[in-house]
Design goal:
Elements lengths: L3 H4 L5 E5 L3 E2 L18 H12 L2 H10 L7 E5 L4 E5 L1 H11 L1 H6 L9 H5 L3 E6 L7 H9 L7 H16 L7 H8 L5 H17 L15 H7 L3 H6 L21 H12 L13 H11 L3 H10 L2 H8 L2 H21 L12 H29 L1
Parallel strand pairs: 2-4, 3-5
Antiparallel strand pairs: 1-5, 3-4
Length: about 375
Amino acid sequence: MVDWDQDLPLRTSKTVDVELLEFDQDNPRFTPDKRPEDGSDEAIITLLDRSSDLGELVQSIAFNGYIDIEPMIVYANEDGLVVLEGNRRLAAVKVLRSPELAAACRISTPKLTDEARASLDKVLVYRVEDKHGAIDLIGFKHINGPQAWDAYAKALYAMRWLDAERGKKDGLTLSEIAQRMGDKHDTLHRMVTAAYALKQAEDDYVYDLDDRIKRHFSFSHLYTGLTYPEFSTFLGMDRIARSEDPLERPVPADHEGELRQMLVWLYGSKREDTDPVVQNQASDLRRLKQVLTSQAATRELTERGDLGAAVVTATPASDLFAKNLIDAAASLRLAVDNSTGYDPELHPDMMEFAKLCVDRSDIVLGTMERRSERSKRGK
């Protein structure tokens, strides 16, 4: 067994053999829609190539050789050194060193010069004590720095950091973590709250993210939705101040049924053969928010899964009437503009439709006049 304290003391940099380096299996990049099939090098490299395009990096290293400008950040385990920061570089180096692995991963690699090939045998690393040892540096780089992760990867990283701090006597709060990450807009608080809700759902077998309908995981549906009081009220969640840390289990146990229902509305369920009702975040989240203001509409959406119909139920009759009347007037205006195109031989039934429009408009006008008179008498 290697004595790492002797061979590579903590908080020091040193060149080591590439064979000693392992990928980080808990890499926050590995979100539900970007998860390797297994823990093998082939699966991880294939995933990294698909999600973060290794091609340019492979070409650059092949042309220039591996340049040790920035050390990979590692921690030691029983088998070797786990790379916390530098997994893309490690993937590029591995495929350049092994044509067989490159072929298995379907990554094209150029022919290497002897000098470039020799540069791939050893790389510079910096050893930290454990996976939390370089959390500030890695967090800044990938949350608000030049190589940002996607939203769910950021949320997982910040959530794990907060979990590690909770057990310390003077551990950092999420607000302090956000400051170290350069977050000035409470974004991390919203994302970490949503990440905890998802973790609770998976831990309690309420919802499995692998059961979602779409391969792409739209994490923003949830963390944006939870900013609305209507969503948190439906889930029975307390509205935690941004200055306080999110709860590890934000949804009360007696509302886990609602948590499942919310996640099915957002992401669907393959097991239930149910499509998500939120297809377009910008419009559908607002419509779902409106539905949640009405018990009748919420029940209708739960039972029928028809967001459009539930929105109608949630909309006050006065608003529906005004919208219907405006839409009808607009349609009639178009009919007037095109009335010279009427051909009685081609469309003999259109005369009846026109009379029907007149009859219905008379009914609407009569109803409005009667209600107006009653309103005046009531004053």
